[in-house]
Amino acid sequence: MKKILTLALFLGAASPAFAAPDGQALYGANCGICHQGGGVGAPGQFPPLANRIDKIVSTPEGKKYVTEVLMNGLAGSIDAAGATYVGFMPSFKSLSDDDVAAILTYLSSLGGTKPAPVVSAADVAAARAAPMSSSAVAAARKDLNAAHPLP
């Protein structure tokens, strides 16, 4: 095995330890159980993410809000895609900044915005560095919706 890895590195292949996270696989393992495959959501239970995240993260305020949701969770009632959802979204702060960024970038790619906005590990790290209560995240959502109506 050592010879194969050494040969792969010699030939310029990336080491598995340095491979970029797979946002689709990470989404499936961490988010898909609720938000379903492809981010389509579950009517009345979990809002759709496809065709929405790209629009939200297209502004700096939206990108900040979405990373805050993943780092801090969200509870209560929200309006999304023309429907009301009441529930609880847990924090995903146990995931690395790179993994959360990969998930959000994958979700952004499921929308019509071209090129799809990218969420970086630095964006996630900034949200991680400023913890908030889930009620503060809900207030941030209301403020964002007033400035940039959320889809």
From TrEMBL:
Residues 1-19 form the signal peptide. Gene3D superfamilies: Cytochrome c-like domain (1.10.760.10). One of its GO terms (molecular function) is electron transfer activity. Transmembrane segments: none annotated. The keyword Nuclease does not apply. Residues 18-111 form the Cytochrome c domain. Keywords: Heme, Iron, Metal-binding, Signal. Pfam families: Cytochrom_C. This is Cytochrome c. It comes from Gluconacetobacter dulcium.
